[in-house]
Batch of 2 targets.
Target 1
Amino acid sequence: MPNNGIQLYYRNALADAVGAEHGVASAELDRLAPRIAEIVERIEHERKAGKRRYRDLPFDARMLAAVHDAVRKHRPGCRNLLVLGIGGSALGNIALQTALNPPYYNLLPAAKRPGPRLFVLDNVDPVQFGEVLDLIEPELDATCVNVITKSGETAETAAQFLAIVDLLQRRLGPAARQRLVITTDPATGAMRRLAQDQRIDTLPVPDGVGGRFSVLSAVGLFSAAMCGIDVDRVLAGAARMNDRISRAVLRENPAALISAIHFLLYERGKRLHVMMPYAHQLKDLADWYRQLWAESLGKRLALDGCEVFAGPTPIKALGTTDQHSQVQLYREGPNDKVITFLVAEAFDRDVILPPRFSEIESLSYLANVPMSRLILSEQIATELALVESRRPCLSIRFPRIAPETIGEFIYLYEAATSIMGLLMNIDAYDQPAVQLGKDLTYALMNRRGYEARAAELRPKIALDPNYLV
Amino acid sequence: MPNNGIQLYYRNALADAVGAEHGVASAELDRLAPRIAEIVERIEHERKAGKRRYRDLPFDARMLAAVHDAVRKHRPGCRNLLVLGIGGSALGNIALQTALNPPYYNLLPAAKRPGPRLFVLDNVDPVQFGEVLDLIEPELDATCVNVITKSGETAETAAQFLAIVDLLQRRLGPAARQRLVITTDPATGAMRRLAQDQRIDTLPVPDGVGGRFSVLSAVGLFSAAMCGIDVDRVLAGAARMNDRISRAVLRENPAALISAIHFLLYERGKRLHVMMPYAHQLKDLADWYRQLWAESLGKRLALDGCEVFAGPTPIKALGTTDQHSQVQLYREGPNDKVITFLVAEAFDRDVILPPRFSEIESLSYLANVPMSRLILSEQIATELALVESRRPCLSIRFPRIAPETIGEFIYLYEAATSIMGLLMNIDAYDQPAVQLGKDLTYALMNRRGYEARAAELRPKIALDPNYLV
């Protein structure tokens, strides 16, 4: 338990705190402990057999060196960095940026920013995309574009890539290729071939690491390092979490406790897993978690082939903001949620509230108080109010928001996801259900090879006016 | 059914589309129709009795004139607008801005923006707040601050207000008050008194309109109009929806259909109500909806006093982004969701994908295709894939994203919330469960009058190190 590392606090998810009906009993944890020990050991075995490659990323010095090389080459003179990616090729990048760079980073003058402006484009909205093109257009020769797609097939990323490359080539000619960095499969796929043909710089999406587990690879680290984030410290943080999440003893392993508590409560019908950061900087970690948890654990089939339609629904909330939006429901609605607070115990900056208008009772208690004390008090108050309503709560406590603690958090939740997958007896690493949507999109877009699908689709597309109101 | 208005499409939530187990049968709708007729009529009666004041806002010419007067006074020379508010005093403002102004609005040079930069500060994170102070500091005399709090008691808004007023007064002296607009209760409360004492301009939070129903009042409209949004057209859109949501015939009333379908499916265990816009501009409407639906419908007590712990959990998703994050779960996880797509049938701008690299098969199908076709195809594909997995889906179709259609949407969902409250037999207009968190916060902050609460709290605050891992 490093005294400057993040910690899990789990008492408020226990029966002692929220009652036997809604909390986990100590005895339940004890009964689950041997299974957890087996699972943790199984994961360690899988890892040694080269199967849990995401776990090796914090120790991958070669990968880190490649990221630094690319940054050394592309950062000088770079005023805008565009990341073209979606899902696991965007959410980690966004989370690192929000956590470890100043809020309103893109609004700061260049001299106050530790790197280029960052635009992570994880959609294909033409209005939004067109606006980005306008924004970077005057500075195209100072713009770096990082295209991230493992397969090279992702329609959204391919579309963005075409539009941007065209713009670059029309303006810069053959020099356009120098503005690109393609992060893709190390050996195969359309983007790998294209990069080779066009002599475009590349970074690898490591073999055996799925998109949602890839933030600690070049996928997430290149844009972070370009923007001045100390990615060595992020990896060091993840690495120092390694020992804690490898322990076979349930009560000593925070990843195992997170999984065990969520699993036991899931089995009792609490299938909504809310993550509620109390810090602006931590808010996009909740979106990253949302993909990790949903896509890993939402599965129709168990490992034995039985149809189970399993999966908790992760939900993003934000304190204090959502106290004024969701807490009414969280306290009085169905007791179907487990709420995990992310708590920043200290902030890098504070605002002391001045003693103005202190003759007014509803303002006087704020005089000379640091704003950090208000947000921390609101977190405590919200957690206690939820416990009062017998709603189970966890918290992850950040002694400080820093590269190391963010690295710890990422690695902790990745490990918790692996354990949760085995507790739920599902495959946490595939995503079979996204293929159909991709195929139907290809069919609607007249991609070659999808003609039969397109013919099937045609009668299903038209809206029936009888149901349009 | 105005041909340029928004429309609800509901066939994919019916048994015909997703099967009897997961869809609503026509006969079920027919059985519910008389109750809906009663409810719609009851709401019209309540309204005539002055009880559903939010319904009158689109027709409130006096309120609108007051907003325009304030804008005329405060807009000249204004380069930054800060909104200090939280929950219902922020979510509507953010939604209007995202929907009706360009993406990356704050990054645009002043000449390309229709108004001042807008910062809606709906949190009390000291790092984020401190950064905003730094950003506006060089332009304080060109900054307008709109403080929104009905009661004047909201701790977050009060804290922000103190910090900003202090900054303004230190820099501008007595002229500071000219930079403020306080939106608060028309007659009572700390902020009303303060505004009178200090001769600060005010706008009213209308009597009888709860925060989450207030976006079409001065609460939401002042910041929108300051930023160049045509608020008359927003209200005109809402007004033209009025007739449709007042109809007693279920199948002619889109608000009634939204409520009826969600209610029937809620009763069958589908308690997660996902809103998934397929347009960047519509994304923050989902956060606005999240408050409206959660805080209105999440209730412990039924109107008859029975304990029911009712309430659907609204969830925000975003297309296409969340196809790569949540759709795996939505298709294969528990069939416990109703998914509502927000579809923009046309975009104000398009990007034609150039025919580059068209020798590469995975890129060639995109050549010469407008990006809007890709996002629209992905929406259709996702909806069909969900229907294939028997997941009920609705869609709200925007012929165009414009002030009128946004106004329609807001008013439609407010009306649907009223109807849903009566179907669920709960009070959709109160929020009793948020008080405890506020009281505990006051106690932790040593506010006068909360000493007993503070004494009670003291033993509960310390973390038990046995549960810290």
Note: The two ends of chain A are 59 Å apart (CA to CA).
Target 2
Amino acid sequence: MQSTMMQYPLTLVHVLERAGRYFRNSQIVSRMPDRSLHRCTYADFYRRSRQLASALTKAGLRRGDRVATLMWNHYAHLEAYFGVPVAGGVVHTLNLRLYPEDIAYIANDAADRFLIVDDILLPLLEKFSDGVQFEKVFVVPLTGQPVAAPYHDYEALLAAESGEFAYPEMDENEPAAMCYTSGTTGRPPGVVYSHRSIVLHSMATLVGDSFGIKSTDVLLPVVPMFHVLSWGLPHAAVMVGSKFVMPGPHLDAESLVELCETERVTFATGVPTVWMSVLQLLEQCPNKRNLVPGMRVGIGGSAAPESMIRAFDKFGVTVIHAWGMTETSPIATVSTLKPHLRTLPEDERYAIRARAGYALPWVDMRVVDDEGAVVASDGHAMGEIQVRGPFVTGSYHNKEVDPAKFTADGWLRTGDVATIDSEGYIKICDRTKDLIKSGGEWISSVDLENAIMAHPAVAEASVIAVPHQKWAERPMAFVVLKPQMEVSAKEIEEFIAPRFAKWWLPDEYVFVEAIPRTSTGKFLKRSLREMAAKRKMETAAE
Amino acid sequence: MQSTMMQYPLTLVHVLERAGRYFRNSQIVSRMPDRSLHRCTYADFYRRSRQLASALTKAGLRRGDRVATLMWNHYAHLEAYFGVPVAGGVVHTLNLRLYPEDIAYIANDAADRFLIVDDILLPLLEKFSDGVQFEKVFVVPLTGQPVAAPYHDYEALLAAESGEFAYPEMDENEPAAMCYTSGTTGRPPGVVYSHRSIVLHSMATLVGDSFGIKSTDVLLPVVPMFHVLSWGLPHAAVMVGSKFVMPGPHLDAESLVELCETERVTFATGVPTVWMSVLQLLEQCPNKRNLVPGMRVGIGGSAAPESMIRAFDKFGVTVIHAWGMTETSPIATVSTLKPHLRTLPEDERYAIRARAGYALPWVDMRVVDDEGAVVASDGHAMGEIQVRGPFVTGSYHNKEVDPAKFTADGWLRTGDVATIDSEGYIKICDRTKDLIKSGGEWISSVDLENAIMAHPAVAEASVIAVPHQKWAERPMAFVVLKPQMEVSAKEIEEFIAPRFAKWWLPDEYVFVEAIPRTSTGKFLKRSLREMAAKRKMETAAE
């Protein structure tokens, strides 16, 4: 027996056409380099995305060709998100925070054929342009300055097109977009998203128990669009017609809060460090700000400390914790409270909200120990998170499938270590490589960091493993204090001691001005390890 | 270039496993024939669905075999919804409101191999059992009476299984469920849903701008589970873990309102006639009922009059208008207000909410005139709605593709006539066969019905075309008055006249006790046409 259902591909063509049909009045707001606000509608977005598709096709774009972007979050980047894939191309978002030579490596590995670049990023492009061979470079004149040869003017490119465009027939499994992981060691590998994976991911984030995005929402993706498709927020927004507000290059707390206030943002996303700085700003003048009551902030990329979730609640802002990675499109879990957990005492509710949540529809998840056995769902046993699903990568671009990354039965090994409770909520304990193994037992650096960051004088904390003759490894904490605050190592230890077994407590606290970060805002533990090693050598030399 | 994403099928296996993993505490409530409430949890549902899958497999179920159900809405029907497809079978829901010989025809056309039947429906089964050949019949002992040979006891069947079950490997395009259309003429054809179509449809209804179902919702499907998969509500509920309340055979207004009150229902579904009777009950004792504030009711199957939407608002109940058909899984449009329409004057907002809405994600829709041209989106031009998408049928079971049902370019011809406004909201004017063509112009029977039903003395109205020598066809109205109410034809005409061109007004008003209905609660216009013809003959004979 056969199903009688139509064979209809899940592609971005449908999403773009839907937007052009139903959401022509929805607003798109972009912060420009000069801080002014650029405003347009979905009708403009629809027309210009199709103009871009048409222009790229005339420029010779073939099926599957990569079109790189080197851009901040703004209307033209959104056009590239759709205009490239509906023409049969693959939009490849280059991470402008990487070292120029790394960007060049990635552009070459992906064999990017065309590039669309913000005019204000031309100085960055010129740092690595010797190492790459883009056939054509289109410059978005954000500043209004004329575009000089050999570059092509993005606006002129679009202006030459009527907006009429006949989409090529497409299979839903064809590639649509590409991102490289932000690995902190070695050359990052590329992940290639399909039309199907992008569309399914956006639907999974739309449902009420994940991000619950609706047409009435006003979205602010602070996550860069060059970072894992901005968590799929652009696709989710366009699917339902939400007002879409983009911060451009202005990611400081004051600019973000101002944008939230004036554009009436209801849902924003970002990594904890960005929102920590927003929180500090709110705390400086608690009565002066005018955020939309009930505003939600999706936080991921690294763990949001419980103290931060509590602090935002005081400002009427609900933090929704999420977890994922480039390989999972990226949202794989979201921490919303199931109905029967909403009546728990406040502390228990916060403890659950500080976990990473449970899996989105279509994501299969298991937590597996060193021997490959699924760990007990008791909230204590630690293991590696493994996932599979229609928006989880099964390989890397141009690479053999590596057994260190994928299990024999086809699951992605995420490299993140977690516990899982009886309700299925995971709690990220660490990256496998950041776990501290002391005397044969695991210590979670993330748990220690969150406990230390709950101290009112502490702005940031990062804990790493340092080699130890007897215990193999021991924890060392790096601490950044808030301005004008003072606290001793002993005071911090007394503060966190009640929460941990004694052997979990760090052997040393190092007070620093700042903790170095990766290009995506995560703590750069590699660099801390180097600092620790240097410290040890200096101590030995004394 | 290839996408690196995993090939992961969208099947009901994932949905069931997700429920068993994350929603074990969610509640399932079923009204039994004796009016008592049967309570169980998703943990029970998960275990029993797998027991059913295991038992059917041992009973010899092969891939694609049809397992028919003849059941009301309750826990065991929900088990069949999942237990059959995850075992590789196809659940075929028989409509118990059809004539017995029609049920037999449908069971034979589908080649149903097994049957699961409520014990209270055995008298119905016995009316057509001579005409069918089920290999085994499993009886659900809802009343607690023992099950006698030749029937098998459903509970004994499940009790023999441990609940361990190894799912067969499945492709997402394999068939999972089957329904026959409720056509009022000729033998109804069958539609076969796939795992993919069911899962995608449930996701499309979950999003906030359609039904917006969440884990915190308490759902009451008044739509029978033998009618187009109960609009996909069972699948949507299980996907997110909503409490699920089923009315069993008790569909009278008092039973439904009581269930809404005691189980704290937040979202219910049904056809207008059911909710009209609920409304009348609420109006009888406006201060005595205790519905959840903000309760939503999804209404479809036929048009919900604007007057009904307004009346429910007074009780804090939001009617969400939807449109679809067996061929579209069934929800294809939902009428929720886009953000910029929420500030319109009240009358305009109600007018939009009374339309059928705009298309769900993944549904392509166009309105096409007699010549095949897309009509203007002006809210006036009428045409046939045509749709396509991953949960729209492209054919009928065991039938050649009929050009009267499908266009040459692959769209379903729905047979529903609508206008479409500039925002993309459609307004159903009629079935193509119910439209009245008077003097070469179309008159919408639905518009006339809604206008007449807005009169405070009118309970129901149905308008049909009667043959006319000069104008080809003219409208005739059948009217049911509310109890103890009186109104003349002239008064109704004066009431509706301001809304229509004069030539739209019915030539005659016939007051009747009741309007005959189809098995799904729609007005049976065929029967009214027979009444009209008989009337004419009688008049001629006088």
Note: Residues 42-58 of chain B form the longest helix (17 residues).
